[in-house]
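User: Can you model how pyridoxal-5'-phosphate sits in this protein?
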Amino acid sequence: MSESTYRRLRAELASIENDGLYKRERPITSPQSGEIRVAINGASQPFVNLCANNYLGLADHPDIIAAAKATMDTYGYGMASVRFICGTLDLHRKLERGIADFLEMDDAILYAAAFDANGGVFEPLLTAEDAILSDSLNHASIIDGIRLCKAKRYRFANNKMADLEAVLAEAAAASPRSIVIATDGVFSMDGTIANIPDLRRLADEFDALLLVDDCHSTGILGPQGRGTAAHFGLRADIITGTLGKSLGGGAGGFVAAAQPVIDTLRQRSRPYLFSNALPPMLVGGAIKALELARAGDDLRETLRRHARYFRKGLSEAGFRLIDGEHAIIPVMLDEAQLAQDFANRLYELGVYVTGFFYPVVPRGQARIRVQMSAALSTGQLDRAIDAFTQAGRELGVIT
Ligand SMILES: *Cc1c(COP(=O)(O)O)cnc(C)c1O
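Assistant: Here's the modeled complex, given as structure tokens:
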């Protein structure tokens, strides 16, 4: 019986491989940083790392490590409980209050990951009488969260506000009780920033709530790194975010919003109710990371300077980039196999990048997504630009 299932899976895997879409993992043997070591045939070799979400370079920060260790000494290793049974520490509340204060919201609620935050935020708030409008390039976790919710779903073209307006009018015609507009703050594959001024205006016009997933914005955009809406001097109604990127890169996610929203999630959100509480060390580490990120104007300036420098270097070499100002820099190669080959060649040249292709990005839009980090040095960026140029010439991407 089961043999036929295994046979089918093997055939599907072979076809993924044939299409050049197979993803392989490389074991790293060092902390996450601007330079990492990767295990190759038993030895470990150094690489310039251009693909971590370690924007502020906090992933190996000594103060965060010390805070995590100290927390473990005080509170032990794990909670062995969901939050509402016996899994809530004073420290969980301290972090939730800290996130809320940072984002200027009433309250915040922690999840095991932002994937869970997005997976659990819609269903408790909305029913079949409501409507959700979602940007076509939203993260997979938002798409899944919306699937789990009975609200009527609408999709609008990526960051196209005329389309959003038309879809809003269509949704409003059905007289929904509540409308939520959901968008990534920064689109993770393109590095483009959501048009918050128009999203805010349209949300207000249609009495909708604006939900912004700030996973690639928290700590990076806006005053003190308060995120995408703050970057425009505006407010979102609900912010979802991660502790797994700029805020130390550990793990965990959150929703920050008005009190009735957070209270409802605490009562009804399934990934919150039915999954283990965040371990103490992650909470202690995240409290320190939040403090460092808030005060990290110098890190944000380094990140911006790196992004400008690297964009300029690659553009001048002749590469086609998606324009923008964010630390995400997509180098367009179109074909999946080329993106794979390019990433492999850069790897041989000591630069760690990842090729992105279908299903992570649309077919025919394969790319190398470079991500800047404050942990990188200008010397490392120069080495990387040289390697891109060499690989680009060898593979006929540039002349
Ligand atoms: C990374 C990411 C997530 C998931 O975050 P995790 O905390 O790793 O689960 C969700 N949304 C967006 C836009 C992301 O980039």
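A couple of observations from the model: The chain has a mean pLDDT of 96. Residues 113-115, 118, 139, 141, 184, 188, 213, 215-216, 242, 244, 253 surround pyridoxal-5'-phosphate (CB under 6 Å).
User: Helpful, thanks.
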